[in-house]
Amino acid sequence: MTNHYNDLMNSDCILMMGANPAENHPISMKWVLKAKERGATLITVDPRYTRSAAKSHIYAPMRSGTDIAILGGMIKYILDNDLYFRDYVVNYTNAPQLVNPDYRFDEEQGLFSGFEKVGEMPFADFGFYDKTTWTFQKDADGIALRDETLQDPNCVFQLMKKHYERYTLERVSDTAGTSVEDLEAVYSAFAATGAPDKAGTSMYAMGWTQHTSGVQNIRSMAMIQLLLGNVGQPGGGVNALRGTSNVQGSTDQALLFHIIPGYMPTPRANLASLQDYNATTPSSPDPKSANWWQNRPKYIASLLKAMYPDQDPEESYNYMPKLDVGQNASWLVLFDQMHNGKFKGFFSWGMNPATSGSNANKNREALAQLDWMVCVNPFDNETASFWKGPGVDPGNVKTEVFFLPPALFAEKEGAVTNSGRWAQWRYQGPKPLGQCARDGDIMLEIFRRVRTLYEEEGGAFPDPILNLNQKDMAKEGATFPNRYDPHKVAKVMNGYFTRDTTINGTTYSAGTQVPSFPSLQDDGSTCSGNWLFCGSYTEAGNMMARRDKTQTEMQSNIGLFPNWSWAWPVNRRVLYNRASVDPQGNPYNPERAVIRWENGQWVGDVPDGGWPPGERHPFIMRPQGYGQFFGPGLADGPFPEHYEALECPYEEQPFSAQLHNPTALHFEADKEAACDPRYPFVGTTYRVCEHWQTGLMTRWTPWLLEAMPQQFAEIDPELARLREINNGDMVIVESVRGQIEAVAMVTPRVQPFTVMGQTLHMVGLPWHYGWVYPEYGGDSANLLTPSVGDPNTGIPETKAFMVNIRKK
Amino acid sequence: MKLGRREFIKLSATATAVTAFAGLGFNMQPSTAKARLLKTHWAKETTSICAFCSVGCGLLVHTDTSGSGRVINIEGDPEHPINEGSLCAKGAALAQTLENENRITTVKYRAPNTDQWVDAPWSWALQRIAQRVKEARDETFEESNGDGQVVNRTEGIAHIGSAEIDNEENWCLQAIMRSFGLVYIEHQARI
Amino acid sequence: MDGKGFFIDLTRCTACRGCQVACKQWHNHPAEDTRNWGSFQNPPDLSYVTYKLVRMEEYVENGQVKDWLFFPDQCRHCIQPPCKMVGDMDDERAILQDFDTGAVLFTERTNNLFFDEILASCPYDIPRLDEATNLQGKCDMCFDRVINDKLPACVLVCPTGAMNFGDLDEMRQMADERLEVVKEEFPNAVLGDPNALRVIVLFHREPTRFHHAAVASLHGPGRFTRKQAFAKMFGNRKALI
What we know:
The structure holds 3 protein chains of 3 kinds.
Chain A: E1 13-17, H1 21-24, H2 28-37, E2 41-46, E3 58-61, H3 67-80, H4 86-92, E4 105-106, E5 111-112, E6 115-121, E7 124-129, H5 156-163, H6 169-176, H7 180-191, E8 200-204, H8 206-209, H9 214-227, E9 238-240, H10 247-252, E10 259-260, E11 264-265, H11 274-279, H12 296-307, H13 313-316, H14 331-339, E12 345-349, H15 353-356, H16 360-367, E13 372-376, E14 400-404, E15 414-417, E16 422-426, H17 439-457, H18 463-467, H19 486-494, E17 501-503, E18 506-508, E19 537-538, E20 541-542, H20 553-557, E21 566-567, E22 595-598, E23 601-604, E24 681-686, H21 702-707, E25 712-715, H22 717-722, E26 730-735, E27 738-746, E28 753-755, E29 758-760, E30 762-766, E31 801-807
Parallel strand pairs in A: 1-2, 1-8, 2-3, 8-9, 12-13, 13-14, 24-30, 25-27
Antiparallel strand pairs in A: 4-5, 6-7, 10-11, 15-16, 16-21, 17-18, 19-20, 22-23, 24-31, 26-27, 26-31, 28-29
Helix pairs in contact in A: 3-6, 3-7, 3-9, 14-16
Chain B: H1 5-21, H2 32-35, E1 44-49, E2 58-63, E3 71-76, H3 89-92, H4 94-98, E4 107-110, E5 118-120, H5 122-140, E6 141-144, E7 150-154, E8 157-160, H6 167-180, E9 185-186
Parallel strand pairs in B: 8-9
Antiparallel strand pairs in B: 1-2, 2-3, 4-5, 6-7
Chain C: E1 4-9, H1 18-27, E2 53-61, E3 64-73, H2 82-88, E4 95-97, E5 104-106, H3 115-121, E6 128-130, E7 135-137, H4 143-146, H5 153-156, E8 163-167, H6 168-185, E9 190-191, E10 199-203, H7 226-234, H8 237-240
Parallel strand pairs in C: 1-10
Antiparallel strand pairs in C: 1-8, 2-3, 4-5, 6-7, 9-10
């Protein structure tokens, strides 16, 4: 989230699209309804009438997979009706910048300049973009040229206007199946927050990410928020409601192939030395651009020092495993490679990919290709027990499986980070149940034993293992399961001085905690396991454990709790908050100010850099310092463009000749069913309030199973009549990849869509169930979903795919 | 028809025992004093954060200090600024998720091509995992790729997880997996 | 002293069902063995081990959903509880009413009562029987929590302000004030039997759309009416026994 949960109450209009907060983030509704009672308009745009829709003023149904059409229509509506916040757009975004005159968008073909065709998908070309034309015209210093009148035909503003000219209400309605009246209601309510003293916010989740155009869905909203001047404002922002209690923290710590802790890129094979790596550090010739990433060399040196305290960073850089240039090792690729027999061993830690992964049958088959698997989970699940799953003969499965029992959340101490970036410390209540051990102890003990083997026997390149920092993870002299020390780890994540160091006249002795990341150094004199957490555990103590609700009046006015827990970065609660004030430092909305320049200093929240007003552009993490309408960094285009899901019911679509995202991640050997008459209905998956993820913990919790006992399939009454299905009947839902049984829930909360003159039905499926337990619960809806994904993130398209449904 | 205070207390001892304490297995003769104390009265109270979604609601965890040492109640932390004591269905059920007879509480091992789990001691399982890691790593470790560039990695082991463990554990986990040379490191954030 | 009361504001209920589960948790009640019956609502009804249930009803007009109605149902703790009036005929210690709070409490002596009579006496279809023990059960206002100055579990757990608890006069005032505000959006909003109950429910739509026994009625389907119940209590007592 750019903002945080309490901040939702400051909003004048809340757009719940791509999220269903009442069911998946229920307590967020405390603040959503608070905003409602203060006069905010609540909007739900969703394929189903949900519990969130029930509390909204406006509910607009939409066909799954048409978010860019709807949001592109909103961009056009805002531009056509002059509802954008002009000062903000001119001062704080790249709208005035002049784009390379060779940049083109072919409206007929639906392709941006630089497309290189590689192959064909059903009904579409497949390829990648050469992005050399997706650039800006620059002056002699290398600073992008600007036309602050926004009139130059090559400025971003005019190109954007032209791009979305095609997104008429009629065409959007024809594509999304949303009525023109509903679209106008949504557009006019949300666009009203373009007034300087109004703020609108976006709550989104996997409803936007789980598409082959997932990143562009979110970019579309970010563009709307920049047009309306809502980014940086209390009650504004673009707010990702993340799915798991610590998925923010696990992302920050980079349990992902493409980043290392603190959102630095994973070293690639072409960057042989730390010097090569640092040569790719973002730079900016503009003195008014903070370009915060220019500090990256300090952060990677400090990370390397945290991992390998006894080596110079130049040496330990060599210990970091490198990806090949262009190599994608993301989830779908990982399971594809596992299916191909690439891996001998596999760790599945607190996960259940046999149920949570799209095309789950492929994952279940893939697990059988392994020599061994380590599964860490509190309850039996479809992954650990895959070798005795439906249709599997254990005698034919070679995989050796270790199923390790972890302590649960309240049985240990440590921090988790919520969507609002609050790192919150948890304490131990009871001891771990039975022989359960803390995850930290399990991993440290596996490591210790591997290390001992290398010490005793030698082996392939043992240096990274032999030199990994253990003193900052484990209690000295302790043994399993009492070695892991969360306080030590939290301290090294914050970082400390590795030798006596003087910064701006202040001397810090070796071992002193680094006060904040501006003090981190690139010469090995500081360590910090994650620069974003620098400031979380200082000489003043564990900031994440704070329970002080003291506020100034200004902070109290907008529900800011700066002394409760700790938020990254630097305890800043609202990101990009320098964009909430004008270039003189005066809040655009004085009634709900988040920061204000007063008597030569900033008051309120921690500002995005302490420079006086107007000295730096507000978007300090972008090299140019501006919010980006034209985003040249993505795989699939600088502007979001509507394409159909990879599995869709139509052979053509009204926006262009390009049916699908031509850069989508997909696998030749996997099956998809585009425009296949055997699978005429759109399938979509989602969650309910009473279960969580694969149901691994909640299916085993009787009170929750009682409330939602079984896999169900929500369908509209017309489809039910068509297939002679009654409410409560058992049905079979099938895709080209698999089938499941479900209880039919025939409900007018789901309605057929009229798209391009045709009627289209939807089948809605929760994905919380699996064959292990309960026996009557039904198997995973992910047996149906496709292994195709977004080209930027690789997140699978589980929100829109094609199915059939019939009575059992 | 209303009862006087004194009479009520005498009678309500059994009433509350039935409705609030004993559940189905009601006890006919609890003492009056016990009935008037909350079940959390003698418990250790610790604060925590909910294990489910990412709102980050504060919890009060009540752990029995007299006998079992186990959790007897979890409710919302009224002081917490986000949830102010409230919880959803999942959060309200956390005590049952935690104190659950179906939790796996011993190490389970499934040998290749067999059809059952067997209980294994931690030390045996962890040692065997360590050996398996070393074998796989040594067999598949690449110092350089096809282009002769230094990569120092293994593509013979993959790892996923976890968004369900603490920040500090995640930091250690990524450090350990990267020290082994893994590049196939993924988790829930990708799906 | 007016005792305690609840104010349940259905405009604020999101059916997160925290109250339903928190009630089970505090009372250590077991889960029921349920199946999906074509509804999000489960268990299908109140029971001896389900004191609190979020009822979920679709409000449909011309085939289109206009609203999804959520109703956290529970005992209303009547100020003059007919269940107690009926119960007292057989055993005055089976159903108690606390002097301070006004809580209506079913004790272990409810097995001395006739369940059909008790149920019939309740205009809100609340009491439930445990077949195994012949005991009757329903919401006890988390009496043990309340006398220890804690909110009932279902109120503490509620995120949105749908469930409120306090002194009855405060709850009545809160209900009246909220009704005025809600009427701007829902002109037909009403409070359910606000003068007779300690649990005041604000219905923003016709109460029977939420549940057939949402408010006291002379024409409750399939049950004794309150009038009939009183007639039986005071007129045909012997015949019933």
